[in-house]
Structures are given as C-alpha cells and as structure tokens.
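FORM 7B: Structural annotation worksheet

SECTION A. Query
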Amino acid sequence: MTKPISGFSKLTKAEKIDWIAKEYTKHPEATKKILSDYWNTDAQLQKLHDEFIENTISNFYLPLGIAPNFLINGKLLSIPMVIEESSVVAAASKAAKFWLERGGFKTTIIGTEKIGQVHFMFSGDLSKLQSFFNTVYSKLISEASSITKNMEKRGGGITKIELRDKTDSLENYYQLHCTFETMDAMGANFINSCLEQFATTFKKEAQNYALFSNEEKNIEVVMSILSNYTPNCLVKAEVSCPIEDLNLHKKVSPKEFAQKMIRAIAIAKAEPHRAVTHNKGIMNGVDAVVLATGNDFRAIEAGVHAYASKNGSYSSLTHATIENNIFKFWIEIPLALGTIGGLTNLHPLVKLAFEILQKPSAKELMQIVAVAGLAQNFGAVSSLVTTGIQEGHMKMHLLNILNQLGATETEKKAVINHFKNNTVSHSAVIEAYEKLKK
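SECTION B. Predicted structure
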C-alpha cells in the first residue's frame, strides 16, 4: 500500500519523478520517459517552466491555434487561442470571416473598476463604527501610499473605500468594500497588498478610538482579499447587419435564420440548462484567448458566471434583436485582464501571443477577448439552428478518433474522404476504419 510522503517539495525533480512513477504507475520507466519527452530541450527554458509552479515534473502541452480575419473597430487582427477542444478555433475563424465582410466587430469599454474587500466582525454600535470609519478614512489611504505610488504614476490606484453593513446576512459582519483602477495590470497582488494594509490600519486605529468601548475596539479582521466578481469591469462587443446579409446556409433563408437566432437566444435567457451550455460555448472562445495571453481563466470563469446570474437566475450572456430590418448580436461581459505582470513577461509563448495581437493594452485585450467569445457563440448557435452542432463538430473530431485508432496518414486520408458524404459518429468511424483495414 502507498504510504504518505513527508518533505516531497524538498526532493529534487528527479527524486519527485522517481517517487511518483514507482508509487502510482504500473510501468515506472515508461512513465519517466513520457515525462521527459515533454521537457524542453533548452535547459534554461525548461528551468523557467519548472519555476512557474511547485513540484513540477514535466510540461503539459495544449495546442496553440490562430483564428484569423478578426476586424475589430476597423483593425484587422489574428487571435491566438489555446484550447484542447476540436472545432472551437474553426468556428471562431468562420464567424470572423463572415463578419469581416459585414463591418466587423464593434467594441466599447463600459468600465474597468476592480473590487477588493476587508471582511471583519464588529460587535457594537453601528453609528460609532460609521463615525470611526469617517475619521480613519484618510489614514487608510495615506498608510497605503507606499504600495499605491507606482500605480498612481500610471494613472491607477484606490478609487473608493466604503463601509458596508452586512449584518442582515451574518451577525456582526461588516466589510470595507474597496474599488481600484489597475491600468494594464490585472492587479491581484496590488489589490491584496492594499487590502492587508487597510486591515492593519483599521485594527490599529480602532484600539485608539476614544468613543469605542473595550469590546468595540477589538475588531476581528477575518480576511482581506480581492473579489473575482467584477461587474463594473465590463466590455461590450457587437455585430450587426441587414437581415438579407445573413446568407449563411443554402437551405435557410436570411429572414428565417435571423428569427431562429432570436429564438435560440431567448431560450438561453429563459432556461438555465440551456444557458449553461450556451455560456460554456462563449467561454470556449474567451478562455482560449485568456490562456494564450497568460491570464487567469479560473478567475474570469467565476466572475462571468456570477454576472450571468446577476438578475436572480442564470441566463444567457449574449443578446440578439431585429429592429428596422437590422439584425444585431452582442455580448456584455466582465473581464479583469492584464497585459503586464504574472506570466505575461515570463512565458515565451505568451509574449509571442501579445506580439501577434500587436501588444494591446488591458482595455484592448478586454475587447479582443469579448469578441472571441461573441464570435464563438455566433458560430455555435448558428450551427445549432441550421445543420445541428454534430455535423461540424464530429468532422473536426474525426482526426482525434483516427489518432486513437493508430491510423496511418494514408488511412486517415481514405477515412476522411469517406466521411465527406457520410455522417460522422464514433462507431461509424471505427466501422469505416475496420473495413479499410480488411
């Protein structure tokens, strides 16, 4: 039986690999070969990757693809996308090409405000707490000045601190609700450093506040942390065209297509089961660009899905209308992104992705990511309401199935040619492959 290990983090990389291969895999030597096959041959580059996280044993590769022909506010871009799922890059590229000839994508930054909170417990008189907060406010700002001075030089910093009474949700629970502008940085470390300084100042000053009783002076700070819910760090991306230009499918008229799209979006607004899958498709595009640019896709996912529930039930992030014979399709989505800090200045492929994107600012990156999500959603929903999702997706998935079967290049070409006029399914591919082998 495998036993717990003590001091794993202190082992060398080779020792870690030996232990995990021996204790948890059936063929230790094969395991070690797989891990080493994915190391970079450049020792310094591999060392850089090893130091991104803890207990590194190898690199885990995901494909880096390019979706070209995105016209965004009159600027033509190719968008790097990192994702493992078939058809995502193809769908985004198809949507980009379609809208390229119809004016492209238009985007607007609605806001860039980011949020952090000091959560604390206070047992006492609310009016005295409010008076104390008013008294200490300027000191909260001044004692964080060593942290904020560089950000302020770039035009950012603390924008507001509010005292919020949350006792209706939890007894004795209050918070300092703080907002920030972090410019081209995502700003997590900056915000958290500010919050921890606010907490220190708040607790210290409470001890010396004459109007507090001894009990009231003992404010308990529970935690000081940024929020990944950023409803005011918001971007809008949209496309529009006359209905007659929606000639995507030979068997579906432009007017019928527009009506089908409107109904599909309405269903995603009304039905959470559909909305989740609908928004997942949006995030296929969003996450792929977020990953390619070294940003935190988990934070983006959490914030986006919270935003999708902002009106009390989970709903679609995209919207569609027909007005005066004009079809309009758009998204409003919260995206707290950075173009400096983190991996953006470290990972060679991330730096290359930014170069391909023409070195965007954080606001420009927000717009690009929103467009990728909108394009992906347009591609997915337009397939759903015409041919169905499987026709295109399974054809893209065909190569994965053939690779699993160990097909040669000649066999792949033969099977792909067979399915140009036949429906793709996992069982159908296996059957066609086995016939070919015989």
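SECTION C. Observations
The chain has a mean pLDDT of 94. The CA atoms of residues 52 and 343 lie 8 Å apart.

SECTION D. Sign-off
Analyst initials: ____
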